[in-house]
Specification:
The chain is of the alpha/beta class. It has a single domain, classed as 3-Layer(aba) Sandwich (Rossmann fold), CATH 3.40.50. The chain is built from seven helices and seven strands, in the order H-H-E-H-E-H-H-E-E-H-E-H-E-E. It binds S-adenosylmethionine.
Length: 213
């Protein structure tokens, strides 16, 4: 796009939101249906990639004066999980980025939002202070088992009663470690989970949502 057109689109607030790979509108519809905004706490997203989902979450959160915390390392090379077909997650990210820097794409997409806090870090190193509360958290970071377990545990202790945690790629054969991790987590936390829902989103990939007792 020519730079004048780009400037005009920016001035008019018509910036194109990057695609997301989950179908965040389904997640937001679930949050609306459960009136999660009535609960006390913020939103956290682990794995933002180009920020398409972050923008959608931030617009929702803005309506209810909530903050969206985002954790992403913004370095494609760190996720070397191999899919069944042999392609690594890193190669998938790079193909979508088409030569652009992940962080730059994310920053452009999320520019102007004052309710996004971006934590640029390996999620293995992130923990929130005890007083932090979340009403919704979404795990879509590294596809290795240990990371999925870690990412779940970043959120779960801070999730309020009635709050929801979602994990992407559930039962998705390409990233089988994710399902393995989620099934272990469900087993481990069975007594603390009120309900579970599977939502099919973009590319026919499922997210599992767990409501905390
Ligand atoms: C599948 S993408 C997220 C897609 C995003 N939810 C969407 O739908 O647009 C996974 C993201 O996890 C991030 N990631 C991978 N390993 C990570 C790690 N160890 N710590 C933090 N982020 C990580 C990657 O940089 C990538 O942006």
């Amino acid at each position: 796009m020519g730079s004048f057109k780009k400037i005009l689109r920016n001035v008019l607030g018509l910036r194109t939101v990057p695609p997301d790979f989950v179908g965040y509108e389904n997640l937001i519809a679930f949050m609306e249906s459960r009136q999660l905004h009535r609960l006390d706490g913020d939103i956290v997203e682990i794995g933002a990639f180009m920020g398409g989902g972050t923008v959608r979450l931030a617009r929702y959160a803005q309506k209810y004066e909530k903050v969206v915390y985002v954790i992403d390392i913004f370095n494609p090379s760190l996720d070397q999980t191999a899919s069944r077909g042999g392609m690594t997650a890193c190669e998938v990210y790079e193909a979508y980025l088409g030569g652009n820097q992940m962080l730059a794409v994310y920053q452009e997409a999320t520019r102007g939002f004052d309710n996004i806090v971006t934590i640029i870090e390996d999620s293995m190193k992130v923990r929130f202070p005890e007083e932090q509360k979340f009403v919704f958290g979404f795990v879509d970071g590294c596809h290795e088992k240990a990371h999925v377990e870690n990412d779940f545990h970043i959120i779960w202790p801070h999730l309020v009663s009635g709050g929801v945690i979602g994990c992407h790629d559930y039962k998705y054969e390409d990233w089988s470690e994710v399902t393995e991790a989620i099934e272990g987590l469900i087993e481990q936390h069975r007594d603390e989970i009120e309900e579970m829902h599977e939502i099919v989103g973009s590319y026919g990939i499922t997210s599992i949502l767990m409501v905390k007792k």
